[in-house]
Amino acid sequence: MYCKSNFVFYLTLSSFSSRCKTTCPDGWIKFRWSCYFHSTESGSWTTGRANCRTRGAHLVVIHSAEEQTFLSEFTMVESWIGLTDRDKEGTWNWVDGTPLTVKLAFTTWTPRHSPLGEEDCAHIIAGVNSLKNWNDLSCDTSLRWILRKSHSPGKGKKETLE
After folding, report:
1. Which residues form the C-type lectin domain (predicted)?
2. How far apart are the C-alpha atoms of 152 and 11, rounded to whole Å?
3. CATH of domain 29-150
4. Where are the alpha helices (DSSP H) in the chain?
């Protein structure tokens, strides 16, 4: 079942509505079909990823400019996102296995981004242009992280939490 605001089926409206509501755990923020949480602790990218898994979430995967803008407003300190080129230098992939799209990549990296060296994990920089606030750092740097849980009732697709 897909949940669309312009679809109303009179006889099952109440059961349809209850199945289409996205609820987030206490302290999490809803944006579209997902719930987001900004960690209160700091650690390496790997520590952040492990913490996300223990909460049934993952480091945030950003799918659109709208989501990027939301996260930029949501994030007040530099924070890990689920993007890395650890496997192959210069080939950026999200934690769900999807590659970074060129369209999103060209709008998001800060001028201080350096694609070379041992900076293999991406983070959002707070307080700068929301469409140019990604940077890469050593994965061992201690930062907070952004967690994301996806809730898409009826679509049957689960994101990989590897």
Report:
1. 31-148
2. 23
3. 3.10.100.10
4. 13-20, 45-54, 65-74, 102-108
